[in-house]
Each structure stands twice: as C-alpha cells, then as structure tokens.
User: What shape does this take?
Amino acid sequence: MTDDLVLRRQVCFALYAASRALTDVYRPILEEFGLTYPQYLVLLVLWERPDDAPTVSELGADLRLDSGTLSPLLKRLEGAGLVVRRRSARDERRVEVGLTEQGRALRQQVDEVPMQIARATGLGTADLIALRDTLTRVTDTIHRQKEQ
Assistant: This one.
C-alpha cells in the first residue's frame, strides 16, 4: 500500500518548489535591469507584439493575472519609463499598454536571460521544451475545466 499523502509525492508541491526555485534564479539576473519577475513577464508579452498596444484586459488574459495585480505592475513599469498606458481612441473605457523606446531597447539588453535560466536548470533544450509543453497542457486543462 502506498501513502498518497506524502509531501514528496505531491505534484502541487513539486510545481510550487520548482516555481520558487526558478523565480530565485531570475531575481538577481533581472535586478541588473531594474526588473522584477512579474514585470519581465509583462514585457515579454509586449515584446511579442511591439507594434501593437494590447489592452490591460488582454495582457491580463495572456498572463493569467487579474487587473488588481496587473495595474500596479504597469504603474511601476510606466514610472520606469518602459511602458505607456493610454485610453483607447476607439473605446475610452479600455486602457491600452504600449512600449516606450526605452522599453523596446531593453529587449536587446535582456537577450541572454533565457539562456542563463536554461543553464541554471541543468536541463537540455529538449527536456525544457517538453517540460514547458507539459506544464502548459496542465494549466490549459485546469482552466478549461474551471470554465465548464
């Protein structure tokens, strides 16, 4: 008989511990650029579409963050001169977020961050891709089930 209520057997704990460990690796790397990990995630989304200005709601959906969490992040990024928030010309109820020139330029400066993180994990490229894809599948499945 196995005991499923043992900490080391819990997927949730393995994910939690790995997430914390990975965030700890990001912290000093991103501090060099004046960024926190959540701010870096916001910038990643904006760098994917540099000529677009997604709304706060769209950013929140991409990052799976509510506006109460996202708004302070955007305010700090705006204060740092990396993004600009503005009311949509089409619908003033919507706030769009765009990169500033400084925000665009930062992308090249952080170009090595993914490689540094990959090295810190000790995993090869194929293993990292498989892990990412598995975690994405888990997340998507859980969110789909919540929506039903």
